């Protein structure tokens, strides 16, 4: 999902797109960015632990320094996804970020332990929706809309 969004965003001229894992992203990366696309699986009705760790590490360093910057959310979930979305939105509100697209939740339908633990294949239609979100965020940044 993140790769599809990043590829589409990279198609915009005059825009550097960086696809980074939460564990490898620090406050300096957040401060250097003009916008953000937060992508996470939902685990136990929450954002992934590594995403929570990312926000814990960057929050106070970024507070009052990234006000008004645009963001969007992509979540992959078994049957819901709203818990992870709510958590990210609350943190983004605290950081005073501006949500510029509706959260996109991709549902896999995984319900059994085996299905939950199995690698997921995201369908072409859902990947296209992720790409559209990445492209829209990038286009808005390039156009100065956000």
Structure commentary:
- There is one protein chain.
- The chain has a single domain, classed as 3-Layer(aba) Sandwich (Rossmann fold), CATH 3.40.50.360.
- The protein is 46% helix and 16% strand.
- It is built from six helices and five strands; from the N terminus they run ααββαβαββαα.
- Strands 1, 2, 3, 4 and 5 form a five-stranded mixed beta sheet that branches.
- A hairpin with a 2-residue loop joins strand 1 (36-43) and strand 2.
- Helix 1 (2-10) packs across helix 6 (124-143).
- 30% of the residues are buried.
- The mean pLDDT is 97.
CATH class: Alpha Beta
Number of strands: 5
Secondary structural class = alpha/beta
Tell me the CATH architecture: 3-Layer(aba) Sandwich
| Count of the domains | 1
CATH superfamily: Flavodoxin domain
Name its key features.
146 residues, alpha/beta, Rossmann fold, 5-stranded mixed sheet, 6 helices, 46% helix, globular
Summary, kept brief:
The protein has helices at residues 2-10, 27-32, 49-62, 82-94, 113-117, 124-143; strands at 36-43, 46-47, 70-77, 98-99, 104-107. It is an alpha/beta fold. A hairpin with a 2-residue loop joins strand 1 (36-43) and strand 2 (46-47).
List the helices and strands and how they pair.
Elements: H1 2-10, H2 27-32, E1 36-43, E2 46-47, H3 49-62, E3 70-77, H4 82-94, E4 98-99, E5 104-107, H5 113-117, H6 124-143
Parallel strand pairs: 1-3, 3-4, 3-5
Antiparallel strand pairs: 1-2
């Amino acid at each position: 999902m993140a790769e599809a969004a990043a590829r589409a965003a990279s198609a915009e001229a005059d825009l550097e797109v960086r696809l980074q894992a939460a564990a490898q992203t620090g406050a300096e990366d957040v401060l250097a960015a003009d916008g953000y696309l937060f992508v996470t699986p939902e685990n136990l009705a929450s954002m992934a632990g590594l995403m929570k760790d990312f926000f814990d590490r960057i929050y106070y360093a970024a507070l009052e320094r990234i006000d008004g910057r645009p963001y969007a959310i992509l979540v992959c979930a078994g049957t819901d996804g709203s818990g992870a979305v709510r958590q990210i939105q609350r943190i983004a509100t605290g950081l005073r970020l501006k949500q510029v697209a509706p959260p996109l939740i991709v549902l896999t339908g995984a319900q059994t332990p085996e299905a939950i633990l199995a690698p997921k294949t995201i369908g072409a239609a859902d990947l296209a929706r992720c790409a559209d979100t990445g492209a829209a965020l990038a286009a808005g940044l390039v156009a100065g809309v956000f």
